[in-house]
Design a protein that fits this description.
The protein is α/β, with parallel strands linked by helices. It folds into two domains: 228 residues, Rossmann fold (3-Layer(aba) Sandwich), CATH 3.40.50; 160 residues, P-loop containing nucleotide triphosphate hydrolases (Rossmann fold, 3-Layer(aba) Sandwich), CATH 3.40.50. Helix content is 43%, strand content 14%. It is built from 17 helices and 13 strands. The strands form two sheets. The protein has a seven-stranded parallel sheet with strand order 3-4-2-5-6-1-7, sandwiched between helices. It has a six-stranded parallel sheet with strand order 8-13-12-9-11-10, with helices on both faces. Strand 5, helix 8 and strand 6 form a beta-alpha-beta unit. Helix 2 runs parallel beside helix 17, helix 3 runs antiparallel to helix 5 and helix 14 packs antiparallel against helix 15.
Length: 483
């Protein structure tokens, strides 16, 4: 402390900072090591080797798995064979094929006579996952059910009964899956998608008393150093590259005065038989915001740039049935353009959609824009993302940096590093993803060697961290109570 408060040189001040940073990281790593130890004494179903069901599933896929997908599957198989609960983080870039790996894990549970569950943070994403899983599960003779709070009471009761009795083998849902009135006959594998959108308690509830194997998925990559810090109690699998037949999305940035050019380009693609998204920051006009609203923009486009074309409008306030119908119509090419809010950020897969215009792109975060861009480029055709912002002189430096980064690269792992630089590490043990860090002295990008040393030292202090125990308990007490 003296070196920090009254340093005789910059070098001495830096040594003092590094000493306190090491202590911060050590507290974190001791807590994470204890979390791992608690898991190692719990029991989970040890699943047999891969069988006929997953081989049939592989045969249904219209493509060959990438080496990274195969690597992730091999790591899953090794985890699932053990009688201890798997806790693995599967992170991959947009469109890299994580859902294929997730369904593989769920089917491994089914073929061993157990059940699987996939939990998503929003009803829209849960519905999209259900639509994605429903077709292959149907062909394989596996019953897959959807459970969200939007279901009518009678439908919910039927789904709950099917899960409790074991007739439903895979459940897809939101936090409705972890309500007290939902029980599984024998849950063996749980997949938690987009886990940064769940609170700690929600993430843990699926495994609180059932000890299934848990696969966590993040759709937006996080920097490796941050992963080691936040998810140090998890094993990590990465799928960095998309399938070989996918072309990188060409991204352009224009200001509002040139938006007309963007719509001319969009119309040319529509006339060639393609489809498009137009993304707006709001659902409807707000008295407190100048941001463009999806409903207003859809009406304007029908009367102006997209006159004569079939334009739908999708947002989170629509009833679930209406949302599903709109997405089904878009997928069936009954709509040319879908004007939407960020409700399409994840889970939407329409290969014929090759163009996206993002209105007021400067109002969105970097990870969110990368996710949105991932809705195009899902087929073999060249795709385009057009970012429309306010005049450049009205933008903050951070907004400039975000948009320039998106134009420069489509690599989610590189963008994650940029995002870390722009936003900070966030409250690592909370649900906030950016802002002031819980780590007051640590600079994650520069202190990677310190982190590695702290991980090693933590292994020796799991039982007794001495004077650090009180701080470990402060940070991890709630987490330990839930685990």
């Amino acid at each position: 402390l003296a070196a920090l408060h009254r340093p005789s040189s910059l070098a001495e001040a830096e040594r003092g900072r590094r000493r306190l940073a090491f202590e911060e990281l050590l507290v974190l790593q001791v807590g994470l090591a204890r979390s791992r130890r608690q898991r190692e004494v719990a029991l989970a179903p040890a699943l047999g080797p891969p069988g006929a069901l997953v081989q049939r599933y592989r045969g249904l896929l219209p493509f060959t798995l990438t080496p990274e997908q195969e690597g992730a599957i091999a790591e899953l198989d090794a985890d699932l064979a053990r009688p201890r609960p798997m806790q693995r983080l599967l992170q991959g870039d947009v469109g890299s094929g994580k859902t294929v790996v997730a369904l593989y894990a769920l089917l491994r549970a089914v073929e061993s006579g157990h059940q699987g569950a996939l939990m998503a943070p929003t009803e829209t994403l849960a519905e999209q996952h259900f639509l994605t899983l429903e077709a292959p599960c149907g062909e394989l003779g596996v019953r897959c059910v959807l459970l969200t709070s939007a279901l009518r009471a009678r439908e919910r009761a039927e789904v709950r009964a099917a899960l409790a009795g074991g007739e439903a083998q895979i459940a897809v849902g939101t936090h409705a899956l972890i309500q007290r009135d939902v029980t599984f006959r024998e849950l063996a594998v749980a997949v938690v998608d987009e886990q940064h959108r769940f609170g700690v308690e929600q993430r843990r509830s699926l495994s609180a008393d059932r000890s299934p194997h848990v696969l966590h998925m993040t759709a937006t990559p996080i920097p490796r150093t941050l992963a080691l810090t936040v998810y140090g109690d998890l094993e990590v699998s990465e799928i960095a590259r998309p399938p070989a037949d996918r072309k990188p999305v060409v991204t352009s940035w224009v200001t509002e005065e040139r938006a007309g050019e963007a719509y001319l380009r969009l119309r040319r693609h529509l006339e060639a038989g393609r489809q498009a998204y137009v993304v707006c920051p709001l659902i409807e006009r707000s008295a407190t915001s100048e941001a463009r609203a999806a409903e207003d923009e859809a009406e304007r486009l029908r009367a102006a740039e997209l006159r004569g074309l079939r334009v739908g409008c999708l947002h989170g306030r629509l009833p679930p049935g209406e949302r599903r119908e709109l997405m089904a119509r878009f997928k069936a090419r009954e709509l040319d353009v879908l004007v939407a809010t960020t409700v399409i950020e994840v889970g939407v897969d329409v290969p014929n959609a090759t163009v996206m215009i993002v209105q007021e792109a400067d109002r969105f975060g970097l990870a969110q824009l990368h996710q949105l861009r991932g809705r195009v480029g899902r087929g073999s055709e060249q795709s385009y993302c057009l970012l429309v912002s306010r005049a450049r002189e009205r933008l903050t430096e951070a907004a400039h940096a975000r948009l320039e980064a998106l134009v420069r690269t489509g690599d989610g792992f590189e963008l994650a590093e940029v995002d870390l630089e722009l936003r900070g590490e966030g409250q690592l043990l909370g649900t906030r993803q950016a802002g002031l860090s819980d780590l007051r002295f640590t600079r994650l990008r520069a202190d990677r060697p310190l982190l590695e040393r702290a991980r090693v030292a933590a292994g020796e202090l799991v039982e007794d961290a001495g004077p650090l125990d009180e701080e470990v308990e402060r940070l991890f007490g709630e987490r330990s109570a839930e685990a």
